[in-house]
Amino acid sequence: MNSGFFITLEGGEGSGKSVQCSKLYERLMQCYGSQSVVKTREPGGSAGAELIRNMLLTGEVDRWFPVSEMLLFYAARYDHWRRTILPTLLRGGIVICDRFFDSSVVYQGGGHGIPRKYFDAIHEMFEDIDSERSFFPDRTYVLDIEPHEGVARSNARISQSVEQEDRFERIDIAFHQKVRHEYLAILDKNPARCVKIDASQSIEQIHHDIWQDLTSVLTLHGFEQILPLA
Questions:
Q1: d(C-alpha 172, C-alpha 176), whole Å
Q2: Mean pLDDT of the chain
Q3: What is the pLDDT of residue 1?
Q4: CATH label of the domain that carries residue 108
């Protein structure tokens, strides 16, 4: 447990990541206590990263060039990693993160066409600088949903929210189809890390599917105090 356990939830707009992060956080706190489990998000998760979040998720669709957008996401991510995620993992805790680097690979890579080699170069730099612990998540759940349905869900949520973080939702549907295609490619290439979850199911069924997989994975990593499935 001295290297902790890092869980990420990924998926297109409206796939229900935030809801599932909260449900997973509540369940894991019952097992291990609030001092051992941290729930966070991207972009954001640290004071500096939250400032960058506002710049990335609001404003006009063409506010940033794709490369500028990519670099802003990684500036936020590194601050988040160093200030929130890595310290928790090094003390043996569990981190649940709503989006991480896979989102950059699919949105700025698959969606905007930035070649994968540039993401790999940044990841290698992060791994070299912070060699105490791998930058890669231990488990990633990809919540898969058809883009039209997901964007409609997300827009309905935004219409009831004070925060108008809708910059990505306003991009054309072809962009979101590319995002989904790239997520499916990541699932195919990373079967040991990534698990596909059908996000068209009920909230409770999605949580059940995630929890069923996670309990076995945590046991293999030495986390023994696990509550049974409801």
A1: 7
A2: 93
A3: 45
A4: 3.40.50.300
The whole-angstrom separation of Cα 165 and Cα 189 is 31
pLDDT tens sequence across 173-218: 999 999 999 999 999 999 999 999 999 999 999 999 999 999 999 9
Residue 78 lies in a domain: yes
Residue 227 confidence (pLDDT): 57
Q: Please provide the distance, in angstroms rounded to a whole number, between the alpha carbons at the two ends of the chain.
A: 26
pLDDT-derived band of residue 228, with 50, 70 and 90 as boundaries? low
Alpha-carbon gap, residue 142 to 130, rounded angstroms:
26
Which residue blocks in 37-115 are alpha helix, DSSP H?
47-57, 66-80, 86-90, 101-104
On whether the CB atoms of residues 12 and 99 are closer than 8 A, the answer is no
Any domain includes 227: no
The answer to whether position 15 is within a domain reads: yes
The residue range of the domain holding 48 is 5-220
Number of domains in the chain: 1
**Stretch among 114-123, 127-136, 219-228 having the lowest mean pLDDT:** 219-228
Is 230 among the domain residues? no
Residue 51 CA to residue 44 CA, distance in Å, equals 8
